[in-house]
Specification:
Layout (H helix, E strand, L loop, with lengths): L2 H10 L7 E5 L5 H9 L2 E6 L2 H10 L6 E5 L13 E6 L5 H9 L7 E7 H8 L8 H6 L3 E8 L13 E8 L10 H12 L6 H4 L6 H11 L12 H14 L2 H4 L9
Parallel strand pairs: 1-2, 1-4, 2-3, 4-5
Antiparallel strand pairs: 5-7, 6-7
Helix pairs in contact: 1-2
């Protein structure tokens, strides 16, 4: 509800007039107004036709605001250059938006997303201090941090869930080679979706019993560990061994796991 709160959040993000910022679902434009005062270019994508028409009237004099009446999930990001994101996104499609932004071919250099706290913790790997499929896919390439926790009365209507702003900053030196990114994502998704009681059984088509026993000893995890029991660092090392030890025909078992 508060424009001064939006201004504080934009200041926390250190956005400036040299930035191109994408806003997803501007709604009534309370964030857009603040961004328009500070930035060189804002691309605001609003799916709702009525809200879009109101926004078009409100920002008709703003030369740095580009409005689009479009479903963001159908928007082509590949033409944007060195852009950032600052949005109060629709909670119902948070996962789809995050996947499009950060697993696509042209991810932003930074993003500031207002989302449900429990979902944010899933991306951080902070649920019971265990990594999740989502956190493991994001963390090799992005530093993530909650930079603000909202109060329910900051919004109208008041949400029934706790809400935070999560910052995503692209790593200058990612933990996984970009050429291996797709294979890494497939490896994580495959490992988390085998519906087996432990990781040893989940990966028995990839690693031999002896290989897995040696890996568990060297990387210091139990052979009956579940995927979420391993730390981020252990997953990075496990994937590096997968690349080195596993022949191509076995690597093909995991390829395409995300699509499937």
């Amino acid at each position: 509800k508060s424009q001064s709160l939006v201004e504080n959040l934009v200041n926390k993000a250190h956005l400036n007039e040299d930035d191109t910022v994408l806003e997803i679902g501007p709604g009534n434009g309370i964030i857009t107004r603040v961004l328009a005062k500070k930035l060189g270019k804002i691309i605001a994508i609003e799916k709702d036709k009525i809200l879009y028409e109101k926004l078009k009237e409100s920002f008709k004099e703003s030369k740095n605001v580009s409005l689009m009446n479009l479903d963001f999930l159908k928007y082509n990001l590949k033409f944007l250059e060195d852009y950032k994101v600052f949005s109060n996104i629709p909670f119902s499609i948070t996962s789809e938006i995050v996947r499009k932004l950060f697993q696509g071919t042209n991810p932003p250099s930074e993003a500031y997303l207002i989302l449900q706290k429990e979902v944010g913790k899933k991306f951080l790997g902070g649920i019971f201090n265990k990594e999740t499929q989502s956190s493991l896919i994001l963390k090799p390439f992005y530093d993530l941090k909650i930079i603000h926790e909202f109060k329910p009365f900051d919004f109208y209507p008041m949400p029934s869930v706790r809400v935070v702003m999560l910052k995503f900053r692209k790593k200058d030196d990612p933990d996984i080679e970009l050429g291996h990114r797709k294979l890494y994502e497939d490896f994580i998704i495959y490992s988390f979706n085998q519906w087996k009681p432990n990781l040893k059984l989940a990966l028995n088509k990839i690693f031999s019993n002896l290989q897995f026993k040696l890996l568990s000893k060297n990387l210091m995890f139990k052979t009956d560990s579940k995927p979420s029991d391993l730390t981020f660092e252990q997953w990075l090392k496990l994937f590096s061994q997968f690349v080195v030890l596993v022949p191509g025909f076995k690597q093909d078992v995991v390829r395409g796991s995300e699509e499937r």
